[in-house]
Amino acid sequence: MNTSRRNFLKMSALASGSALVPAFLKGLPGDIFNPYDGKVLVIVQLSGGNDGLNTIVPYRNDLYHKYRPSIGYKKEQILKLNDELGLNPAMAALKSIYDQGQLSILNGVGYPNPNRSHFRSMDIWQTGSSATENLSTGWIGRYLDNHCQGCVPHYALEVDDTVSLALKGREVSGFAMGNPKSLRKTTSGQFLKEVAQSKHHKDEHTSYLYKMLTNTQESAKYLYDKTKIYKSGIAYPNGRFGKDLKQVAELIIAQTNAKIYYVNLSGFDTHANQKGQQERLLKQYAEGMKAFMKDMKQNRRANDVLVMTFSEFGRRVKQNASRGTDHGTANSVFLMGGNLKQQGIYNDIPSLMDLDNGDLKYTLDFRNIYATILRKWMDTSPSSVLGQSFESLNII
Question: What is this structure's pTM?
Answer without folding.
Answer: 0.88
